[in-house]
Design goal:
about 10% strand; DNA-binding; 3-stranded antiparallel β-sheet; homodimer; 2 domains; mainly alpha; elongated
DNA sequence: GGGCTATACTCCAATTTAGAGCAAAATATG
DNA sequence: CATATTTTGCTCTAAATTGGAGTATAGCCC
């Protein structure tokens, strides 16, 4: 048990800051909070609350439902202080896990149907998450969200998700349309059209340098706060 | 050393399928290929090529530069076959690590300057990656990309990235504008406006059910191919 | 010939993950 | 009302993964 706080620690602290939770609820309700921005194993949450509580950043109270015990955690002043300090440090850059891209890359090895199925999955996932976002939106509009008093902040996050998901959905849609218009997955006669497509993609023109340097963003630590 | 192939295995196979690479190049050039869709530790790549090679999916040839040995890997037919089989299985859903969202969530604990700095980082990261995407775009337009013969597929991926990055950049931009227009980070009088903002967010209307079920997308395995 | 950086890895401790287990409570089913 | 199933509320562990330290040669530049 190290004393080092990771982003996962702060995610748990942030969620508990909303109001007290039992560990089980905390693990379940992550969906509503940070499942989509900081997905971690369930067992990691159970481990984390213990750690944070032993460090005095959370306070655990044992409760009983019949014979079965459960622990309800609340954030302490020290915990809030830790969050405050964290806010002054640099953020780690965003990253994705997007397996479908790797499949697209090697798509010509497989069949047209296979890559279409993959893209339909992506589109389906985006739509499902959009439906979920729609529920969150409704909760706020109807004034029944748990963090109703924080709409002014939450709105910014909801905006992000809906934009992201709409973008993914739209991309999957137009990519499906493109691929469905093909006879097969061979390159025959498709590259000309593709170059036109690429030419049209909007990259802010300023400084398309030739230095093939990987973006510096990648040099800041990605997960924990390990220092060099 | 298990025999199980993970998405990381397929990412390496996919990259080697382009042309033979030395392990070092492979690890370095991941930026160009799957760094942004499947970011993994460098040491994982070194481990993976050995594993794949012991399984006969890659073939390693020792070369010498003076006294120093290096291994150049090429994909085997068996390796291509593995990729082909993989394409028939279901994709794992996309996921993000986006620490800035957690910070936004607890932003009122900190200062306005802090959350502004965080959002500027996000915008900066997006811009940097956009610049990198711009270089890729240029490579294709000038016909000097390594996978020039695959533009018709690559264009679809480049489209995705540029859309994603522009979306992130635009979101960061408008969120910064919003926050900069505030006097402070207190909720005072901001929630009305926020509700209007939320109301305007485009969620496809079909079926905004009230069942607060977490999207099924999350139930498919995220990383490896573990079966239930 | 000294210093620096790039190449080319290996190794390892510390985390982190996915999932198996276990037990009690609540709910459904016959 | 007896029994089966599901949900709650966790703990434990093997296996995988990570970030970094370490080692060593090569090739430049001054």
């Amino acid at each position: 048990m190290t004393e080092r706080l990771t982003t996962t620690s702060y995610a748990v602290l942030a969620q508990v800051a909303v109001h007290p939770w039992s560990t089980y609820e905390l693990a379940q309700q992550r969906v509503r909070y940070f499942r989509y921005v900081w997905p971690r194993a369930e067992s990691a949450i159970y481990r984390e609350v213990k750690r944070l509580s032993s460090m005095g950043l959370l306070e655990g109270k044992k409760e009983h439902v019949g014979k079965r015990a459960r622990t309800v955690y609340s954030i302490t002043d020290k915990g809030r202080e830790a969050l405050r300090k964290w806010l002054a440090t640099p953020v780690s850059p965003f990253a994705m896990d997007f397996e479908a891209m790797i499949r697209l890359f090697v798509a010509p090895l497989g069949t047209k149907d296979q890559i279409i199925a993959t893209l339909q999955q992506v589109r389906g996932d985006a739509r499902e998450m959009l439906r979920f976002s729609g529920q969150i939106k409704q909760e706020f509009l109807e004034g029944r969200a748990v963090t109703q008093d924080q709409v002014y902040i939450r709105a910014l996050a909801v905006d992000f998700f809906i934009s992201l998901l709409n973008m993914v959905e739209a991309w999957a849609e137009r990519t499906l349309a493109e691929i469905e218009s093909w006879d097969d997955l061979s390159p025959d006669g498709k590259n000309e059209r593709a170059l036109e497509k690429i030419r049209g993609l909007p990259v802010t023109p300023e400084s398309v340098e030739t230095t093939p340097v990987p973006p510096r963003a990648q040099l800041r630590p990605r997960r924990g706060e390990r220092r060099a």
